[in-house]
Structure formats: structure tokens, C-alpha cells
């Protein structure tokens, strides 16, 4: 079904009100919700079908991408795995925030690693893999435990192999016998022992000024986020400052504008960068209830040239990812200080269907609330959450 946007295309003449988002998933949806309260409108782009859509109900709009780019105030993205020609088209408009270089750094692990090395930012010891023989050499140099990752298109545990033994190496080498390394180089990372995974979300305005949310502690299962705790337990000013320095170096190098997420491994007082994401991020969903200005609102503020909102934490928040299961019963919504965010997508395994934000004023109350939500989750989700709490 196609509809004319707000009645007619003349609406596009008021470009100061419009932000175009490349991508039309749940992140674009939540950016739309953040934009409307600022008096701004979102046009989302289905990057595969190359059509403009409503960010909430996905209705196709009677507007071309060229018309939207021409009329809008700014163009941004909800994810980094975009067609290169679409990124170039956005960059050529002069309105793309963040820019094509930032998208490339988030989309390609080899580009990302080169950026980190250029800035002397600690990250996992790694080796670029262009053949099966390279992988064997990497195992000799970096083993006995490796994480092998595709250089592009890998997320939520997809495009990864764990090589924890010589037998694993043989199996993976056999699996990659016909792999096209020229099309898709791989990256082998040394598997390290770390205390926890944390992430930092920072937002940079159009004048290069930075604001940071408190560090978030993240827990995963099968490569996918299960639970975020914010602010991160046992967060010290020194740890926050160390993470902010890393973030600022990356943002400044990329001439960044908007929300940038950085995933980190903490080992003692050392922080190693795992990945960067040039966009709003799953581990920042807690900001919807935890801060005066959520990551979505602040990203839109930044790309629209507006002043940034407050990023300090007003509460303790736990974010529970809701993955691969139908919408929960209303019993969860009966719990005080519990907020369901549903994405209205068809159910399939490992698909992010929604998330639940739990709000408390102290850790004891937060842990109690997590336990109450756990008891109401489907078995597959409850199992992952129980293993984390143990």
C-alpha cells in the first residue's frame, strides 16, 4: 500500500522539520518517537527496496529518496550495514550525520581495527585472515582460543566461529575450504579473559561538543544481549573518564555528529575496545526511562543541530531484551516501574521483538524487580536471565 505523506508532497518544502533515517527497523521507530516530541518528523528508508516508509507502520510513502534527501534537514542511519551506493548518495547530499567514514568504520571490522590502531586505542590482539593458511598461522600465533569473525555483516553472534581447540581449528578450516576470502576477509581475535563487558554511549553535537551517558554493564548469551544494568555496578569516576577519553578520540577522528556506542571489555583497570557502533544502540535502551533525554532524542537533537539534552542517570535501570518470543502477557505491565517497549514485528528465532526497562532507586529493589520479571518470561528468555543472575 502506498500513501501520500501528510496528504501531499508539498509537505517536503518544510525541510527544517524532516530527518531522514536510513533503515526502517525498531531503532528508526524509536528515533521517530524521540523526534516527535521535538517537533520534528522522520522519514525512514527501506534500504533494500529503496523506498521511503513511515517509521512506525512501515507504510510506503509517495516520496522518492531523492525528494526526501533534497528536502530534509539531515540524514542519519539506524544501522551501519547499508548499501555502499546509498551511503555515497547520502554523503554527497552534504547532510549525512554521522558521515560515510563513520559508517564504514562500524560496518567493516578491518576498517575499525585500522582506526583503533591509528589512534593507539587498546583492542583485542588480532590478525586479518585471507586464507585457510592465514587462519592456521593465527591459531599458532594467537591461540589456543580464538574468535573468528566476518569483517562485514556480522552482529548478534552471526558470522562468528569459536576456535578453542585444535579439533575446532580443523573443523572450521574444513568449513572454510570453499570460502570466498577475497569477497569477505575474516578477522581472528585472541580470546581474552575479561571481568565484564561494558558499553559507553556518547553524543556529539554539530559543534563537536560531547556528552556521555554513564557506562552500562552488559550480559550476553549466544552472542546476543540479554541484560543491561545502568549505571554499571561499581562504576568509578576514573573508569568513566577512561572510557570517555577513548570515545572522544574516536569521535574527534571521525568528525562525528550524533550518538556513538562503544563496546568495551574491562580487565582490571584496562579497557579494550571490542566494537564501535555509529548509531543508537541496544545497550542504550535503558536511557528511555533512566535519563531526561534518551539516546534516541539526543541523537536526533545532535543531527538536527539542536542543543543536547541531559545524559545523567536519574534512576537505576535494568534493560531486559525480549528475543524470539511472542508479546508477553499483561502481567509484566502490572509490575510497578516496569516498562514494555514492543517493536510490533513478526516472531522468528533470535529476532529482537522488544525490550523491558525496569526502574528502581536502589540495587536491592532493582534485583527484586528483575526476579519478578524473570518469573513471567517465556522459558527460553528466563533461562538466559537466570544464568546471568547466578
TrEMBL record:
It catalyses: 5-amino-1-(5-phospho-beta-D-ribosyl)imidazole + hydrogencarbonate + ATP = 5-carboxyamino-1-(5-phospho-D-ribosyl)imidazole + ADP + phosphate + 2 H(+). GO terms for cellular component: cytosol. Pathway: Purine metabolism; IMP biosynthesis via de novo pathway; 5-amino-1-(5-phospho-D-ribosyl)imidazole-4-carboxylate from 5-amino-1-(5-phospho-D-ribosyl)imidazole (N5-CAIR route): step 1/2. It is an enzyme of class 6 (ligase). Residues 113-304 form the ATP-grasp domain. One of its GO terms (molecular function) is metal ion binding. GO terms for biological process: 'de novo' IMP biosynthetic process. It comes from the Bacteria. Pfam families: ATP-grasp, PurK_C, RS_preATP-grasp-like. ATP binds at residues 109, 149, 154-160, 189-192, 197, 220, 274-275. Its EC number is 6.3.4.18. Keywords: ATP-binding, Ligase, Nucleotide-binding, Purine biosynthesis. Catalyzes the ATP-dependent conversion of 5-aminoimidazole ribonucleotide (AIR) and HCO(3)- to N5-carboxyaminoimidazole ribonucleotide (N5-CAIR). Belongs to the PurK/PurT family. Homodimer. This is N5-carboxyaminoimidazole ribonucleotide synthase.
